[in-house]
Automatic annotation (TrEMBL):
InterPro entries registered for this protein in UniProt: Beta-barrel_OMP, OMP/PagP_B-barrel
Origin species: Tenacibaculum platacis
SUPFAM superfamilies named among the record's database cross-references: OMPA-like
Record carries keyword Signal: yes
Protein's UniProt name: Outer membrane protein with beta-barrel domain
Residues annotated as domain Outer membrane protein beta-barrel: 8-202
Alphabetical UniProt keywords: Signal
Signal peptide start and end residues: 1-20
Gene3D superfamilies found in the cross-reference section: 2.40.160.20
One Pfam assignment: OMP_b-brl
Amino acid sequence: MKIKTLQLLFVVMTISSSFAQTEKGKFLIGLNTPLSFSSSSTRIIDNSGNSTDNNSSTSFTFSPQVGYSIIDNLFVGLDLSLSFGNVDNQAVETSSSSYVFSPFVKYYYPTNNDFNFFGQFKYGVGRFNSESLNLGAILNPALPDTVESKSNMEQLLVGLGVGYFVHEKLNIELSLNYQNTFYDSFNNISGDQLAIDTFGASIGFSLFL
């Protein structure tokens, strides 16, 4: 009987500890990085077996966020998504960057151990900028040296994930996300609009203070 009582007490204490990490009045400091970070290069190989570098590209995105729990397990806050990219081929070199400010809502469901589940939603607005260095202008001075493109952005993200407390205040998190990104004027010349739907994953951490 005493053993069962001690076991029950241990379970209650563990659950209470899990909830204490995300209880009302806690601050959240987080950082998420999509697993889609990439760096690649391509080569053209002719019939003689000779290869020529064709293009290379890199891209990286990360999202720091700060939140506050208004009730147990429910956090609201602000997320800043920053993205950088570069594409370099034989004719054009393009670099791009973007930022999006997004209010977010994030709800945690603690378990009776160090694992937890969460859902998140964020919607924000920002700006996209790109600049292309036209290497063909060296051969044809009539072509512009650079071409700039700017666009306003809207971004929506919905995600579900699982976390693990490696420390009483530090949660390592993995999430699966759906993201919709809308550019109001992707090409400044034609005024075309662009919408991108993305299904992906991200890994990050949350620190609770």
